[in-house]
Write a structure and sequence with these properties.
Elements (H helix, E strand, L loop, with lengths): L1 E6 L7 H15 L3 E6 L27 H10 L2 E9 L2 E2 L1 H14 L8 E7 L4 H14 L12 E3 L3 H6 L1 H26 L18
Parallel strand pairs: 1-2, 1-3, 3-5, 5-6
Antiparallel strand pairs: 3-4
Helix pairs in contact: 1-6, 2-3
């Protein structure tokens, strides 16, 4: 089993990476493979709602990491989405990446466990968690929780490490994620298949 951890920060080895690394270490100790993917500092296109991806599971824009990551998502068993806090909301890059990945290939995420984490110097974490968790809600993804809100605090990686409760929270995300993945795997081996849900009715509010 493998979990993809998506780092929405432009800074390599920064605070968000430090938190995600703690989750990954715990998953590894539970026998779960991990890979951390970083959005980085290069520009990322936003979704323009063109519909060109429909039926292709691929974004029409192929000049950044989105389609490569989408292919990785296809075979992943779980996800952790991490973001720094910018002006009390997630980074614009991770929102652009997730918009395009979920819009073009949402089926690759369905019914797979996911956790959302946020890193901040001080505030804005809850709004950021709420924004990204909505991706999980629309694709029927079991949301992995922890023993406190999924956040760390610090202005540098060294400060984040000193946030003992925050780092503990990251480790507990890993523990709970590993447990849920193993439960799902056991269920599949026992004949419990992924549910088939209704998706035929779409109702507009204005008629």
């Amino acid at each position: 089993m493998k979990v993809l951890l998506i780092n929405g920060s432009s800074r390599k080895n920064g605070c968000t990476f430090t938190a995600l690394t703690e989750v990954a270490k715990t998953l590894n100790s539970e026998g779960i493979k991990t890979e951390i993917l970083q959005v980085g500092a290069n520009p990322v296109r936003d979704c323009i709602g063109c519909g060109g991806c429909r039926g292709k599971n691929k974004c029409v824009f192929d000049d950044d990491m989105v389609n490569e990551w989408t292919e990785k998502a296809k075979s992943a068993d779980g996800f952790v989405f991490g973001t720094p806090v910018y002006y009390a909301h997630p980074s614009g890059r991770i929102l652009s990446v997730l918009d395009r990945m979920f819009y073009s290939a949402g089926e690759y995420f369905g019914h797979k466990p996911a956790a959302v984490i946020a890193s901040a110097r001080r505030a804005g974490t809850t709004a950021s968690l709420d924004a990204i968790a909505k991706y999980c809600g629309i694709k029927e993804m079991p949301v992995v929780s922890s023993t406190y809100w999924n956040m760390v605090h610090g202005n540098t990686p060294e400060e984040v490490v000193k946030d003992l409760e925050g780092m503990q929270t990251m480790r507990n995300i890993g523990i709970n994620m590993a447990w849920l993945l193993k439960c799902i795997d056991a269920g599949k081996k026992s004949g419990v298949d992924v549910p088939v849900t209704e998706k035929k009715d779409k109702t507009n509010f204005i008629r």
